[in-house]
Design a protein that fits this description.
There is one protein chain. The chain is 65% helix and 10% strand. The chain is an alpha/beta fold and 395 residues long. Strands 1-4-3-2-5-6 form a six-stranded mixed β-sheet. The chain is rod-shaped. It is built from eleven helices and six strands.
């Protein structure tokens, strides 16, 4: 028991205290070493030192009570501290437990996160491999598709060329064999040679020009038509050639070859304005026709003298003569103008006895007045009016 130990400790301390007093000579406060006396002797001593013993006993009692109180307060303080530290230890234990739990959770989360990261990295690698494989396949498919597209485009281009060739062949077969189209210098030279070889009797060519007209404005001359008396017609696409070839220019300037047509002087003037070509021997058919058909056009003259129908009201004359390819209607229209012009010229030469003047006389008169220049319609009308006035004055 703790209190018994403390009591023994107090007695020992008291003995040591009394020994100290004895050594110092305080005989009135301390007892000599107890001799071996009898009970009677003890009683005597007790009566003698009764007060001292009581004081000493009171001191012992006070010290004992003080020690007891000190021990109780110490015990209470220790219990309080123990309880405090126990509570603190419990709190620390709880905190430690929470920290361990948090550490375990953090480790679990870290492990889970690492596992997820590893899984994501694995998925990413798989996706990259899959993407590379798809990319390679896509590139192969793209290359294969491009090669197929290129092959198809090449085949389509070949088919278009074949279709265009077949179309040209079909149009050429539908087209009369006496009509030829010149779109370059070589074909122009070959057609000029053919026209010269077939033109031996009258030394004349049917002549006409076509261009795009829009209201009062017009474009450059796009097509020149020349036809022989035998029915050979050449269509020269000046807009595609870019200029008037030298062989064609020589024919247009040749004074020995007449270029006949209706209102041909206007065509000659346009050629001079557009391509700087000075034509010679241009003859307007109305100048050798009877006077009563002076105001007729090519359509009415063809119907009247040749019984040939010309459709001038279909709008073909206002079509686009600068297209990459002329239509069959345009080719037929342009060729008929030149062919009908040379046929009318032949008709007037054969029936000159029924005319007011022969074609040769009219041509000689025109050549004398105009030399190498072309004659306009206004000049013809003025000459007709002067002739009528002279006839009226004679009458």
């Amino acid at each position: 028991m703790e209190w018994f130990g403390w009591l023994i400790f107090a007695f020992e301390m008291c003995g040591k205290f009394f020994d100290f007093l004895n050594r110092q000579g305080f005989n009135s406060l301390c007892l000599p070493p107890p001799p071996k006396i009898s009970c009677e002797t003890f009683c005597v001593y007790f009566d003698r030192y009764k007060i001292s013993m009581l004081i000493l006993f009171a001191i012992f009692a006070i010290v004992f009570v003080f020690l007891i109180l000190l021990w109780i307060s110490h015990k209470k303080r220790m219990n309080f501290e123990i309880c405090y530290w126990d509570s603190e230890i419990k709190k620390l234990q709880l905190i430690l437990h929470d920290l361990r739990r948090l550490k375990d959770e953090a480790e679990e989360e870290t492990m889970l996160r690492d596992s997820k990261i590893n899984q994501l990295q694995l998925n990413l690698q798989n996706l990259r491999r899959h993407y590379r494989r798809l990319k390679d396949e896509t590139e192969e498919e793209t290359m294969l598709r491009d090669s197929k597209i290129n092959q198809l485009q090449l085949n389509l281009q070949n088919l278009r060329q074949l279709n265009s060739k077949l179309k040209d062949d079909a149009e050429r077969e539908k087209r009369p064999k006496n009509i030829e189209i010149a779109s370059d210098i070589d074909s122009c030279n070959s057609i000029i040679d053919r026209l010269k070889s077939f033109d031996t009797e009258y030394r004349a060519l049917g002549f006409d020009c076509e261009w795009i007209a829009s209201g009062q404005r017009r474009s450059r001359v796009a097509l020149i038509q020349l036809a022989t008396a035998s029915g050979i017609c050449g269509l020269f696409r000046i807009n595609k050639i870019g200029h008037v070839p030298d062989t064609l220019k020589d024919v247009l300037k040749d004074k020995t070859i007449r270029k006949v047509g209706v209102n041909s002087a206007l065509d000659a003037r346009y050629l001079r304005m557009d391509y700087n070509v000075e034509m010679s021997s241009v003859l307007d058919l109305r100048s050798i026709a009877p006077e009563w058909c002076f105001d007729m056009g090519l359509e009415r003259m063809a119907k009247k003298f040749l019984n040939i129908e010309l459709d001038k009201k279909s709008g073909i004359s206002y079509s686009n003569w600068e297209n990459s390819e002329l239509t069959n209607e345009q080719i037929d229209y342009a060729a008929k103008d030149a062919i009908v012009g040379i046929k009318l010229y032949n008709y007037f030469n054969k029936h000159c006895d029924q005319m007011t003047q022969t074609a040769e006389d009219c041509y000689a008169c025109m050549l004398e007045n105009l030399n190498t220049n072309t004659e306009t319609t206004q000049g013809l009308r003025r000459r007709r009016r002067r002739k009528k006035k002279k006839t009226a004055a004679v009458v």
